[in-house]
Amino acid sequence: MMELTHYLTADCHDSFQAWLDTTKGKDRQAAMRVLTPLNRLAAGNARRCQGRW
Prior knowledge:
about 0% strand, mainly alpha
């Protein structure tokens, strides 16, 4: 199991979460295409994530 963390700016702004929230509102499928490999990576399955980053 791997822990993925969000980068926070000096004023504690989470740019990734803000982008994700906006994207979920507009295009839920696009957000899931980003979250699926991140969740797999966090679960320790890096095999399907190779070549995407």
